[in-house]
Design brief:
It comes from Limosilactobacillus fermentum (Lactobacillus fermentum). This protein has helices at 4-16, 20-29, 39-56, 65-95, 101-112, 122-135, 138-148, 153-160, 164-182. It is an all-alpha fold. α8 packs across α9.
């Protein structure tokens, strides 16, 4: 059981041994800069995660400092990653409109450009991209590739040798599949 006394000792240990850098290292690894709007919240949660690691560590913290730091870093990293995912999903839910094509276009662009969605890790991008590509037909994949290269609908129709109404139908289907994949609850 986590008591106030042991959590307090963990926070004191964090300050006494100047281990706030573990929290800052985890934030840096997750590409959360000081300009991120939730930086202070993530930093504070990282400090609390350090205190929880102090309480949960099996063994003597003073005798096994290196092992403890590795353990604490992992807990801090995973806690902040969970919060990033949670904030991403909350923002994602707010962006879905009745048409939802701008939100879907945002997701598709974010998977192509990692800077567009700074809180997604490369692994998540690849997993989402792979699941989308598995769900699309070959013709839909070709459309998506041209769409992400910012071709106009007329240019896409010319490239794929189809009519413009067919391009609109492809677009509608691709966005419907993407919307269905990206709006599932985790």
């Amino acid at each position: 059981m986590i008591t106030e006394r042991t959590m307090r000792e963990g926070l004191i240990d964090l300050c006494r041994h100047d281990q706030e850098r573990l929290v800052k290292m985890a934030l840096a690894k997750l590409h959360v800069s000081k300009f991120h709007r939730h930086y202070d919240d993530f930093y504070q949660e990282g400090c609390i995660a350090y205190a929880r690691a102090y309480v949960a560590f099996k063994g003597s913290v003073d005798a096994e400092r290196d092992r403890f730091y590795a353990f604490a870093y992992k807990l801090i990293y995973w806690r902040i990653l969970d919060l990033l995912k949670k904030s991403w999903h909350q923002e994602d839910e707010r962006q879905v409109s009745t048409d939802a094509s701008p939100a879907t276009a945002y997701h598709l662009a974010a998977m192509q450009d990692p800077w567009a969605a700074g809180y997604l890790t490369n692994i998540e991008n690849r997993q989402q991209w792979a699941s989308l590509m598995r769900a699309l037909s070959l013709r839909q994949q070709e459309y998506l590739s041209l769409f992400l290269q910012q071709f106009s609908n007329a240019e896409i129709a010319k490239q794929l040798h189809i009519s413009r109404p067919s391009v609109y139908e492809l677009r509608r289907r691709v966005f419907a599949i993407a919307r269905q994949l990206f709006t599932k609850d985790p």
